[in-house]
Amino acid sequence: MKRIRIYMVIPLLAIFATITTCHACSNSNEGEAPSGPFSSTSPVILNSILQSNMVLQRNADVPFRGTGGTPGQSVKVTCSWTATEYIAQVGSDGCWEVKVPTPEAGGPFTITVEGRDKVVLDNVMSGDVWFCAGQSNMQMMVVEVENAEEELANANIDNIRLFNIDTRAQSDTPVDNIAANWTVCNQTTVRRFSAAGFFFGRELEKELDVPIGLINASWGNTPAEVWTNRELVMADEELKTNALKIENNGSAQPNRAGNVYNAMVYPFRKFPIAGTIWYQGENNQSYAYSYCKLLKTLVGGWRSDWGYDFPFYIAQVCPRYRQYDHPVYYANPALRNQQRMAADEIPGSGLGVNDDIADLNNSHPKNKQDVGLRLACIALSKTYGKRTFDDKLSPMFDRNVPEGNKMRVWFDNVAGSLTTSDGLAPSCFEIAGEDGVFKAAEAVIDGNTVVLHNAGVPAPKYSRLGWSYYKVTNLRSAAGLPPSVYSTQTWRDMSEEPGSKGPAK
Q: Which residues of 436-463 are buried (b: 16+ CB within 10 A; e: fewer)?
């Protein structure tokens, strides 16, 4: 297998990566064109992702590739941003590939791919490409959100391009092509696009003034296992056990580990991206306590496929009244806490908290504007290094330290000093002593810390916040953002939360 070095640059993010070429496709003798006239009898069948209207990752080596060629013949790629011609020789398998360096942000450009036939790709931009994946909350369309008609009326943004996989696909084996089209963003094309993805991209385009490409790979009612390389899931005994239970249950489709990954993630592995946003978790509540491990496995597999550690930003699912009798208690806050842990443990990750926009009777809050905005603020701070956005990140638990009969809790990302949304004392804190029995705590803000006390817990050892399906804390950062749920307990709850199914109907 031939190994190729790529140097990829996006603003304030330099990535040096090693990518292994697909074993099924040869790309021998690739490179710049030799002198003399070009001649070839090979047909040109481009990979399905390479189309007019697309955004290519800026300052990257983008593989142009195809199949169905004539072995031994050549395919030529020319681009309007450079006089250089790039030549790929067709391998014995009919596959060909050549890497084309992309310019700084700009466009529109024209790309011509020539063999016996000539394929012209026009209105191509160079900018930043973001992969938007997950289940129904990522799938939720712009037409379904709050103020949808107003949002659509203002959605004609030529600098944003959309690749919307609205025909969901799964496969038992990895595939190389996918059925979808690149379109210019307007009120028609964005109507059925991911709302969270669009609002994320819209904020990036506004702040960066560069072309933004958004790939929507989402499918409602899917567990994270189906988005993960099956070999990696089956290599871990805990993840394997959970995955086989999901497959045998059969209540959700698709439910086979790796099947959506094969059809909706793997095809993009050679298409450079700036990063990924992820909005998923509801379908993993029954196995909440392994979610951090599962997400780390998913991200590790994806990054290995692409060949570099791109950013991976997570939208936290919301509190809501319990719908099902899960095999674990407090499944919703446990899952959200695992998302917090994953964002902390995965390098180059971050978490957008959405507790304050929750609809306790619906897993799909219609305010996707704030979801996208919060993810964009993470990217603008962490990926693009815009320091003015550091104060617009969700507060995160840092540590807790006993102080006599009290517990002090520190938070990161407080933007100065903590506050509350209603001017009252912070709510939804609990503390426990050695016996592990949590009791509601009186809470007092002290800068970026909160001091907790309960007379019935004379020697506090553990603390937690928002450990509930439906109770939402009033604690906020100075920027008005809610903190993530957290718990320092090292055991699983032994009974379900009272009232977690909501008021009787």
A: eebeebebebeebbbbbbbeebeebbbb
Task: Kindly give the pairing relationship between strand 118-134 and strand 212-218.
Answer: parallel
Q: CB 53: neighbour CB atoms within 10 A?
A: 21
Residue 278, number of CB atoms within 10 A of its CB: 27
Give pTM, 2 decimals: 0.93
CA distance 436 to 489: 8
CA pseudo-torsion sign 298, 300, 302, 304: negative
Per-residue pLDDT band for 37 (boundaries 50, 70, 90) equals: confident
Q: Are 364 and 220 in contact (CB under 8 A)?
A: no
- C-beta neighbour count of 435 within 10 angstroms: 9
Q: In what order do the strands lie in the sheet with 96-101?
A: 45-46, 61-67, 96-101
Looking at residue 5, its pLDDT comes to: 31
Q: What is the pLDDT of residue 25?
A: 53
**Closest by alpha carbon to 241, among 301, 281, 289?**
289
Higher pLDDT, 24 or 165: 165
Distance between CA atoms of residues 298 and 230, nearest Å: 10
- The whole-number average pLDDT for the span 240-245 is 97
Asked if residue 444 lies in contact with residue 451, where contact means CB atoms within 8 angstroms, the answer is yes
pLDDT in tens, 454-474: 999 999 999 999 999 999 999
What is the spatial distance between Cα 41 and Cα 114, in angstroms, rounded to a whole number? 10
